[in-house]
């Protein structure tokens, strides 16, 4: 079946437009290879530059177009993150922020078997933005909000993620660890932990444990291979996901998905890096991996196997190009954003030419099993992802 997905996009600030252009070329190359898979790109300006131009960081027209599209692909914005991404996450109820961290063959790391995913609650905690000033600004207070409803739904997402990861990589036993600080915050974090615990009862095949956030931060640098799925609240998830990305190569390779019931937004984990903007050296992989997660989500949500095979094409192309050391300086290469992007697009085209209809992504540029975003289909209704 031929599909054209409406992709609203935010080019953002700093390196945003450069890395967005990369991801867009990759998706356009995918469309050329898959005649039945098309993307209508809908510009939805937001961020610092938009604020300067229009007086609003997230103009109403952009917000409406985003909410009417199939999904949003977003590059990082600058100082207006609170008015843009935080607002979109909350207003569109994109309650789960999925942040994988996995070793890549082409990036040197102290570790070789890291394959974890952080499932970050995305709508509440300190991010509700309720702050008060007293005593003429000499005393300030922020509210941390935790609800049973949000905690249970993020826990459910984490357990489902653990199960689908285990089904697609049977050597892995599914495990969820609930990261919190209930020893100091027995009400808020206590509620989060209690809610996760009650969901855990419905998943007897998943190993469930709890860990304080300081211990988790330590274990992430000590033995990150021991983690499978981390479920945590908004602030801890924000911090731990930067840490986890560093363990496998840095923020330059970290993509993420903000998932709601019907809508999702995909973006790099990092900010807009104004210090390297315009130099042509920004790593496009975080944005390309965000686009890859977009394809996987579409594949799962719409049962569109073209999207699933497209995601695999992207994955194997990145791996092949990385294997040839065509990388940006942040991960040990000396290639520009453009050179990396062109090499990935070329690889996608060549791989597709070599296989056509029954293209086997395990073919000539097969990536190692540990890097492979495995997807299996048990039947038409059930596309499982390993995020
Ligand atoms: C992230 C970012 C945002 C966050 C910022 C830009 C508001 O750091 O997506 O992790 O804190 O969530
Ligand atoms: Mn962050």
Structure commentary:
The chain folds into 2 domains: 237 residues, Isopropylmalate Dehydrogenase (3-Layer(aba) Sandwich); 138 residues, Isopropylmalate Dehydrogenase. A hairpin with a 4-residue loop joins β6 and β7. About 5% of the residues have low confidence. With 387 residues, it is α/β, with parallel strands linked by helices. It has a 10-stranded mixed β-sheet with strand order 2-1-3-12-11-4-5-10-8-9, sandwiched between helices. Strands 6-7 form a two-stranded antiparallel ribbon. It starts with a strand and ends with a strand. The structure holds 3-isopropylmalic acid and manganese (II) ion. Manganese (II) ion binds next to α8. The site of 3-isopropylmalic acid (IPM) has 6 residues, from α4.
Question: Main traits of this protein?
Answer:
387 residues; alpha/beta; two-stranded antiparallel ribbon; Isopropylmalate Dehydrogenase; binds 3-isopropylmalic acid; ten-stranded mixed β-sheet; globular
């Amino acid at each position: 079946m031929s599909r054209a997905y409406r992709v609203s996009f935010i080019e953002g600030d700093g390196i945003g437009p450069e890395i967005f252009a990369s991801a867009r070329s990759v998706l356009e190359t995918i469309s050329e290879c898959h005649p039945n898979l098309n993307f209508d790109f809908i510009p939805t300006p937001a961020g610092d530059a938009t604020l300067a131009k229009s007086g609003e960081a997230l103009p109403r027209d952009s917000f409406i177009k985003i909410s009417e599209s199939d999904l949003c692909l977003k590059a990082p914005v600058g100082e207006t993150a609170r008015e843009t991404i935080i607002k979109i996450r909350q207003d569109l109820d994109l309650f789960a922020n999925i942040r994988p961290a996995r070793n890549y063959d082409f990036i040197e790391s102290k570790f070789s078997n890291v394959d974890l995913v952080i499932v970050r609650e995305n709508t509440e905690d300190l991010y509700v933005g309720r702050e008060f000033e007293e005593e003429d600004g000499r005393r300030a207070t922020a509210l941390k909000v935790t609800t049973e409803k949000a905690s249970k739904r993020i826990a459910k997402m984490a357990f489902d993620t653990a199960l689908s990861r285990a089904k697609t990589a049977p050597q892995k036993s599914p495990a969820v660890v609930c990261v919190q600080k209930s020893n100091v915050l027995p009400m808020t974090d206590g509620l989060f932990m209690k809610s996760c615990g009650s969901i855990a009862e419905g998943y007897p095949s998943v190993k469930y444990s709890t860990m304080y956030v300081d211990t988790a931060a330590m274990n992430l640098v000590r033995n990150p291979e021991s983690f499978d799925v981390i479920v945590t609240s908004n602030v801890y998830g924000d911090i731990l996901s930067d840490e986890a990305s560093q363990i496998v190569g840095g923020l330059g390779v970290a993509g993420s998905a903000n998932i709601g019931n019907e809508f999702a937004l995909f973006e790099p984990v990092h900010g807009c890096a104004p210090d390297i903007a315009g130099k042509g050296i920004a790593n496009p992989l975080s944005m390309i991996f965000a686009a890859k997660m977009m394809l996987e989500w579409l594949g799962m949500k719409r049962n569109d196997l073209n999207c699933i095979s497209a995601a695999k094409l992207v994955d194997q192309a990145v791996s092949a190009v990385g294997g040839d050391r065509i990388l940006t300086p942040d991960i040990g290469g000396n290639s520009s954003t453009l050179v990396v992007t062109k090499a990935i697009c070329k690889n996608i085209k060549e791989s597709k030419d070599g296989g056509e209809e029954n293209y086997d992504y395990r073919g000539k540029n097969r990536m190692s099993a540990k890097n492979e975003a495995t997807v299996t289909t048990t039947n038409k209704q059930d596309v499982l992802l390993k995020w």
